[in-house]
């Protein structure tokens, strides 16, 4: 949905025309006090990035879910209490392409393509207590895609439509600054930055390096929050180097629960990757071949994943054909988006795969493990809402839902 809904190339042309009409003789980067694309003397952070004490959305023992909802004309935010399975509906205004981010008790709503602002919600009233519009010097719509808080509380916001990483404080009157990420981009000059998370003093950003011909590869890039400079992991220059991922179009990043030091991550791409930040390498936990056996054959199909506390099961929400054996997504995309299905992949033993439930519809990260339950948001027309499955059985069995959250749910996170 996000990649299709934000074909940024026409926007890039439009932005250039607008800038040329307004100031035909000026460089937009120079007008904003920023340097044009020239990296001969680019400065990198010294040392190596911090790979421990990673901070992700939600708490270790979440009690609530934050849900963004939309009918693609308007949007809202709802809060669901896990224990009572009840929802406070429409507690804040949303937008058609908004995602929730929670960290350290703070709840931010990231309003993405063409909306381009951040809402910071009050944890007591759920109302917006700060709302910041976002701009970038090189994009008509900077398209924020995530948020990570630095050690000092500053927000680092990846901009999918810009070559810059935006840094600001989520408070009125804050002055934003821009960290140049263009050295990590492909030839379109934008690294297509999406997910952000912090590990100690480093903020890590997922970049997609989407190329003009549709060939792309993802990587993890680290930013030193003390100097606000990116790290060049191979130290060789002149191009910036991150940790190359094995798959493409990363949808989610989660902590590896079996690593107490916090330096290993799990990333949903065209499989599920296990990334070691210290060794700066990735290997498959679930390979593209594992996905292909259930009909997941192209990067657009996976939506969300989570794992149990012992890393023995991975739960994946993805679109698949109704008849996986007879359909090939490369030949007919329509067949591959008929329904979203929840899969239970066993990571030990015979590595069997079970279907938890099918016939669903979803568009964004909308699956969370909470204790011994699996919560999934579905936009199914007949019965939209949140479904609850017990993880005490294999495959998990539905025990509640759909729980009404107002408009059809779009994305969820734990709090």
Q: If you had to describe this structure to a student in words, what would you say it looks like?
A:
The protein contains 4 helices and 30 strands. The chain has 415 residues and is mainly beta. The strands form 7 sheets. Strands 1, 13, 14, 15, 16 and 17 form a 6-stranded antiparallel sheet that branches. Strands 4-3-2-30 form a 4-stranded antiparallel sheet, with no helix packed on it. It has a 4-stranded antiparallel sheet with strand order 5-6-7-8, with no helix packed on it. The two termini are 25 Å apart. 47% of the residues are buried.
Residue share in helices? under 10%
Distance between the termini: 25 Å
Shape: globular
Approximate strand percentage: 35-45%
The SS-based structural class is mainly beta
- The tally of beta strands, per DSSP, is 30
Main sheet?
6 strands, antiparallel
Query: Uncertain runs with pLDDT below 50, 5 residues or more?
Result: 1-33
Query: Mean pLDDT across all residues, rounded?
Result: 86
Counted by DSSP, the helix tally is 4
Radius of gyration: 21 Å
Question: Main attributes?
Answer:
4-stranded antiparallel beta sheet; single chain; 30 strands; disordered N terminus; mainly beta
């Amino acid at each position: 949905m996000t990649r299709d809904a934000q074909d940024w190339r026409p926007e890039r042309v439009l932005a250039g025309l607008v800038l040329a009409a307004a100031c035909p003789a000026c460089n937009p980067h120079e007008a904003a006090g920023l340097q044009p694309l020239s990296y001969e003397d680019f400065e990198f952070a010294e040392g190596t990035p911090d790979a421990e004490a990673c901070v992700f959305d939600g708490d270790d023992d979440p009690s609530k879910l934050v849900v963004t909802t939309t009918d693609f004309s308007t949007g809202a935010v709802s809060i669901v209490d896990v224990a009572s399975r009840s929802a406070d509906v429409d507690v804040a205004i949303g937008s058609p392409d908004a995602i929730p981010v929670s960290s350290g008790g703070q709840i931010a709503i990231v309003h993405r393509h063409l909306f381009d602002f951040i809402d910071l919600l009050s944890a007591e009233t759920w109302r917006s207590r700060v709302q910041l519009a976002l701009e970038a010097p090189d994009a008509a719509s900077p398209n924020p895609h995530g948020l990570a808080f630095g050690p000092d509380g500053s927000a680092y916001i990846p901009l999918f439509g810009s070559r810059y990483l935006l840094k600001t404080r989520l408070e009125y009157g804050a002055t934003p600054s821009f960290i140049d990420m263009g050295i990590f981009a492909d030839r379109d000059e934008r690294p297509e930055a999406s997910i952000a998370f912090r590990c100690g003093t480093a903020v890590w950003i997922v970049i997609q390096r989407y190329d003009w011909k549709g060939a792309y590869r993802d990587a993890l890039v680290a930013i030193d929050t003390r100097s606000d400079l990116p790290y060049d992991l191979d130290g060789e220059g002149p191009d910036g180097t991150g940790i190359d991922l094995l798959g493409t179009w990363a949808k989610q990043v989660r902590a590896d629960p079996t690593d107490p030091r916090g330096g290993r991550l799990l990333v949903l791409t065209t499989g599920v990757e296990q990334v070691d930040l210290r060794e700066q390498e990735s290997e498959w936990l679930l390979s593209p071949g594992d996905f292909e056996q259930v009909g997941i054959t192209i990067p657009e199909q996976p939506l969300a994943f989570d794992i149990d506390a012992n890393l023995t099961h991975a739960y994946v929400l993805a679109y698949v054909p109704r008849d996986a054996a007879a359909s090939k997504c490369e030949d007919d995309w329509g067949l591959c988006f008929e329904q979203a299905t929840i899969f239970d992949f066993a990571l030990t033993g015979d590595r069997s795969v079970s279907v938890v439930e099918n016939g669903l519809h979803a568009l964004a990260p909308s699956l969370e493990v909470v204790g011994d339950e699996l919560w999934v948001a579905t936009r199914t027309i007949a019965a939209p809402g949140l479904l609850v499955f017990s993880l005490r059985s294999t495959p998990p069995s539905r025990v509640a839902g759909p729980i009404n959250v107002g408009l059809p749910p779009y994305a969820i996170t734990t709090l």
